[in-house]
Amino acid sequence: MELMEIGKIAKEMKYELAKLSTEKKNQGILAAAEGLERDADKILAANAVDMENGRNRQMPQGLLDRLLLTEDRIHQMAEGLRQVVALPDPIGEMLGSTRRPNGLEIGKRRVPIGVVGVIYEARPNVTADVFGLCFKTGNAVILKGGSDAITSNKAIVESIQRSLESCGLMPKSVQLIEDTSRTTTEKFMKMNEYVDLLIPRGGAGLIRTVVENATIPVIETGTGNCHIYVDETADLAMACDIVENAKTQRIGVCNACESLVVHEDIAGAFLPMLETRLRAKQVEIRSDSRAGRYLKESVPATEEDWGKEYLDLIISVKTVSDIDEAIRHINSYNTGHSDAIVTTSYDHARQFLDEIDAACVYVNASTRFTDGFEFGFGAEIGISTQKLHARGPMGLEALTSTKYIIYGNGQIRE
Amino acid sequence: MELMEIGKIAKEMKYELAKLSTEKKNQGILAAAEGLERDADKILAANAVDMENGRNRQMPQGLLDRLLLTEDRIHQMAEGLRQVVALPDPIGEMLGSTRRPNGLEIGKRRVPIGVVGVIYEARPNVTADVFGLCFKTGNAVILKGGSDAITSNKAIVESIQRSLESCGLMPKSVQLIEDTSRTTTEKFMKMNEYVDLLIPRGGAGLIRTVVENATIPVIETGTGNCHIYVDETADLAMACDIVENAKTQRIGVCNACESLVVHEDIAGAFLPMLETRLRAKQVEIRSDSRAGRYLKESVPATEEDWGKEYLDLIISVKTVSDIDEAIRHINSYNTGHSDAIVTTSYDHARQFLDEIDAACVYVNASTRFTDGFEFGFGAEIGISTQKLHARGPMGLEALTSTKYIIYGNGQIRE
């Protein structure tokens, strides 16, 4: 289907979706969950085609693993949808109301954004996830997945559309752009007339391409060069636990720790303790020369290391003379995602919370908690690293806008 | 100064500004207000240069009037700054906090956005306005005004910088890009490393250019094709008052009414009444043929008229058979700014509020109230017609972001 046609349909859908009751929306999502499980065979057959193409094209093992669907993964997708059903519907909430001296009553109501576009890579589970979150918030959605997952995505979207239709809801609430060419993607990013918001989900390259080319408002998600600063007053055992957890509990994620900053006064006591722990997990250490003196094995860090999101078993280590230097260093190299301090000093904790410029700033905890589920939102559409609209983990509310509704009785402006 | 240098300085400033107390910030804004009045002669002399250049270049009278500064207008700029001092400081407010089952305490704090860029046309008063709003919210600001106002803008920014310096505050909290060339402006719009938010203030052409070229997140402001729908149950005298007010009270503004939608059943009774009122104010009417039958003088409206922001003594008139047709028409042609219904029907009022997709939806009141001051915000940085971050009149809060601050005692993720 023509891209413009998809846009027009989505725009029509948004008016219908905005009118749906919570009950109807939940009914649609539940039907989609059941449909995915019922259509598992079809979806797996479609996925097998993508997997074979991927193997023929020598796709790396990590990507193949993300592309792969199994009976169990389809069940997880369905369970994810059922969880969204259980969440409260944010649409319609009144965010305050005032009566002006002239008698006008001005209220602010939470409404859907309208049409949400999502550009993502070869992870077919995103297809179902995004549908659930957008449908729950009354948004029409246009999906543009990676070309490597196109057969799987088609099967998933068709299944969802059939389920919606079966309960009398609009199947075109979710649409997939089947033409995954670059030209089409570039046009999609400029469809301001039809699309209200664009969310890129994927690696740094994808996000940069969208930020640089889109004229539609974008929420930037994802990249995380997260730091942990171990203060001279830190409980060193706690610091070891936190750094080890943030670095190694899962390495390919944006809230993993990529850089350690250590106060020089405790570097000698702390780094050998930590090295033992990190070595046991095969972590490579890249350090400045001062830190290198306390480490048995470490590679000298280059300027490039300070700004690097490794997503790997590597950590950079920087020593500093005081908290001001630590804060300056972190603010220079972080990506505004998540940074933590380990300290027993009340003043240092407060200063770090105040002065670090990031979506999430922690005292005495692992950066791995930056996550919609861990924050108690019950869902996550991504983690925003920009400052507009939403910052940090985004739950359902990030998919809403507001409108002012004004009740008068003939007021005119003097 | 080099553009990159300006960006770097602004980024340094943002960390300092984020730390300033409300008292210090108010002190700076008050000093700037006094400074502008003290420097009035210098500023007027600079403005005379711009005015002469403008006249030599045959600038239209309307633009010359916007460019002109007088003693009184400088006083108004200073008064505007004093009003911002009187407003509460939104920075530091806690927007809720939760304790998670694992003991993590997660709070959401209101913080400055960081570096705000503003691109505007030849209105030198915007220079002082924007400084006040940004300084109050702890944001560093980079201004790019129109080339026609460059001498005036330089004088105003220098005056503000001197005032800040005199009370020990950072003069470079506000910086002006003196090179107003197109190449520099295009580079400015892509300085994502240094600028967190870009706000275009001006006509539709400027806004489109920024939306199309910026890679920095933009808040789209301004254009308004506002509709008033007069329902078949309307109080016709009230409808006349509201339409006349919204069309004629001030014509060059984005919240003026540009299009009237009338139910066919009352068109015969209402349009002749309204025509008398609008003729008295020299308003030209462009109508569909059904409406034309009830009007003494009217030009046939073309398709182009329905989508047009006239900013002039012209109104388009469209007849409809029911409220559904009215809502469809308005949602097709509005700019998402402000639309109103005049009705005595409870159900129609409710349906209109629910289904019109605009920042501000009115029942029985003039669209001219869409304004930060009229809404009680005490200030206005613009009126957002997009759905992200801020929608409708933007007060100080629109210049803020949030960050999560998380208190732990050693939590790691399992």
Number of strands of chain A: 16
Kindly, what is the distance between the CA atoms of the first and last residues of chain A, rounded to a whole number of angstroms?
Answer: 52 Å
Give the percentage of residues in beta strands of chain A: 15-25%
Radius of gyration of chain A: 24 Å
Helix content bin of chain A: 40-55%
Q: Which segments of chain A are poorly predicted (pLDDT under 50) over 5 or more consecutive residues?
A: none
Strands side by side in the biggest sheet of chain A: 10-9-11-8-7-12-13
**Describe the biggest sheet of chain A?**
7 strands, parallel
Counting helices, strands and paired strands, the structural category of chain A is alpha/beta
Pair of chains with the largest interface and how many residues each contributes: A-B, 67 and 67 residues
What is the multimeric organization of the chains shown? homodimer
Please give the count of helices of chain A: 15
What is the overall shape of chain A?
globular
